[in-house]
Amino acid sequence: MAKRVWSKNAVEVLRVGEGFSLADVDPDSTPGYDGDKAGGVRDLDAGLDALTELQEKLFARAQTGVARNAVLLVLQAMDTAGKGGIVRHVVGAVDPQGVELAAFKKPTPDELAHDFLWRIEKRVPQAGYIGVFDRSHYEDVLVGRVRSLAPDEEIERRYGAINDFEARLRASGTRVVKVMLHISPEEQGERLMERLERPDKHWKYNPGDVDEREVWPDYMAAYQTVFERTSTSDAPWYVVPANRKWYARLAVQELLLAALADIDPQWPEADYDVEVEKERLRATLAQ
To answer: Out of 3.40.50.300, 1.10.8.60, 3.30.70.260, 3.40.30.10, which CATH number does the structure's domain 10-285 have?
Structure first.
């Protein structure tokens, strides 16, 4: 694996543990990493080869029926925190045939007629794939709580349902990497203003984002509750400071590398006699 310039293990320093407080996390910080932006960009590039090889091994083993492992990356954040950049610059750097992306929007009437996990379970990654949830089932306990879209008792039920769902994923061989990209309201305001000032960014602007800013403290409280109720040994949460885009991308790459290294996929052995096939191939080349 390529050399990584981390002073502390990213998994350990970013993982939500007992006594965690979101209010104590500085969105401008770079936990565990002492380098600057230039170094972070170089390290991100250096990690691509390792990430690509691990992903290809994961895919190859599933395609040959050797293993059933997968990785699910869950990305949650306030708007403009950089989810799209993670998808493009981290996950997008590997072979696209081994990636499944699901961007969950407001539920449709048909989806609302089912349990909140109904649409989620249909999009879990197949064996051998890296799946990405750009927003996820956690919208149903974040927006649902802040905007009172469901009764309190239903929100409470959902925390337990989520833990059961993620435990089943882990038991089936899927590593769940849950990342909250933590941006400050000041940084978000600047990014939203940039979208308004640039015609090529107008399509990305949503007037509703300003409405959400007005209840920012409520969202932070909802996230804190999510961490306390759903950061488990089967599917821990990681909070990644996201004011510095380069750091957020580097940190998520490191978390994915750790998840894949934990699976430790190996190239599947050939189910045919390699030497015999070489001789058969040589015979056709000599014709």
So the answer is: 3.40.50.300
pTM, entire model: 0.94
| Dihedral sign of CA atoms 127, 130, 134, 138 in order | positive
H/E stretch holding 145? helix 139-146
User: Burial, 210: exposed, middle or buried (Cβ in 10 Å; 0-12, 13-18, 19+)?
Assistant: exposed
Which residue, 89, 67, 100, 2, is CA-closest to 264?
67
User: How deeply is 74 buried, as exposed, middle or buried, from its count of CB atoms within 10 A (0-12, 13-18, 19+)?
Assistant: buried
Residue 52: both structure tokens together: 């690509």
- DSSP-based three-state secondary structure for 202: helix
Q: Which residues are CB-neighbours of 93 under 8 A, at least 6 positions away? A: 48, 51, 52
* Residue range 180-215, pLDDT digits in tens: 999 999 999 999 999 999 999 999 999 999 999 999
Q: Which residues make Cβ contacts (< 8 Å) with residue 196, sequence separation at least 6?
A: 202, 205
Q: 3-state DSSP call for residue 219?
A: helix
